[in-house]
Each structure stands twice: as structure tokens, then as C-alpha cells.
What does this fold into?
Amino acid sequence: MPRSAAGKPAESPCAFDSRGRPARLRYNSQFMSELLEGKTALILGVANRWSLAWAIAQAYRRHGARIILTYQGERLRLTVEELAAELGADTVLACDVTRDEELDALVARLKEAGTRLDAVVHSIAFANREDLARPFLETSRAGYLLAQDVSAYSLVAVARAAAPLMSEGGSILTLTYLGSSRVVPNYNVMGVAKAALEAAVRYLASDLGPSNIRVNAISAGPVKTASARGIKDFSKVLDGVSQHAPLRRNTDPAEVGDAAVFLASSLGRGVTGNILFVDSGFQIMGL
It folds into this structure.
């Protein structure tokens, strides 16, 4: 039996309760493999400690990856730099994914530093609040184009920019949601943008497969992130999921981080073009 530093038996990460049922998974650092040791990950979209990008960055770092973070605009620079320091990230660079010149500058900085990328995380989406609050039928042309540009096309732009730095292959990951294929109240134009994003994942996986670059998405259940506050009645969505999902609970951001580690590591080497649901099973349910 594994023993702790104090000589006592170490707690199994897969324990059972007093009635012999599997208990909730408990993590012990001595059981955590460094699945991403020696790999470098570029993570776009960490804005605060409630974001899923932050949960993924933490999980990557815990498994040994070198982390590079980006920020959009000076308003977010200090926050991201503070998070990077807490995480032990190597570098923090500016990048607005809607501006090709900023993506080019990002790649130039990484090339200059001799950086090879093994993983890229795209955790970026945006829609006007008013286009989320009113019926989809009333979406403005400008609002539709904005949501598509930031939330879907940006993955194409990021993949095109990053691919030359992934000389030994690797993983590109984005984040989506069930609203891409089901009607979710008040998700509206963002649901349509996520549908385009998921299609982009498949086409990019086909294009980049010969370079051994895998492209996938995680469809996370609803999580209390800062961006989720822009969705009307979001608390009702959380309540509905916790009542009806097979696991009878909402998604823990750490679960998304763990799934992201799997996809970026050699364990996920045969997985590409996929949408991996991490939502307590909610996507399987009907009425």
C-alpha cells in the first residue's frame, strides 16, 4: 500500500464510503502524474480566477506544463499578470484575437524566444448583452457578426497563427456549450456562434491532422463565470441542471481542467475533431 511521507497509509484517490459505494474522487498530490511535463501551453482567455481558462491553466501547471498567458487590452493586463505570478506562468503577452496584427506580433514574440507550442487553449467568446436578452429573431446584423468573429472565427485565426509553432504536433482546444445544438433560453446568438465554432473544430481537425495537431472542444456544463452573468436567469439554468443531470449536480471547473489535461496529453493522442461533454451527463437527458 502506498504510504505518506509520515509513514501512514496514503488515502486512495478512489475511496469508498461506509456502505461500499464509490465516494467522490479525492485528489492527493502524490498520485498526480505529470502528464504534461516538458510541454508548453499557450492559453488565451484567462480573465479572472472564475474563468474555465483559469481552471485549465491550473490543471496544466499541476501536471508540469510551462504556461504562457495572454490578455486583451491594458484594462486586463494587471489582473492577468497577477494570476500568472500566482500560477508560475512563464510569460504574459498581449493579444486581441480580432486583430490579425496582434496575433502576428504574438507569434513573432514566441518565435524570437525559440518557443515551441504543444498545446493551445482558446477560451474566448463574446456577444452584446442586448443580443442575449432579446429573442434571437431580433438579433442585429452587427451583433451577429460580432459574436461570430470573436467566438468562432477567432479559433480559425488562432489555429492558423499557432500551427507553425507546433512543429512536433500537439493539441488545440476550445470551449463550447450545449446551446450550440439545443435551444437554451437567453443564449440566442451565442448558441449560433458556438454551433459555428464546433463546425470549425471539425474542419480544423481535418486540415491539421497531417501535422499531428489535434483539435477538440470541451462542452462544459453551466458554471458561474463572469461571462455567465450576462445571461438572463442564469441561476435558473444552474438549478435545472443540478436537478436533472444524471449526477444531480453542476459542473466543477476542476473537472473541465482535468478533461483538458487528458486531451493535451499523450492519453488523448488518438482523439481529434471531437466535442467532449463535461456536464454531469446533462446532454443525454430528454424531458
Remarks:
- The first helix runs from residue 52 to 62.
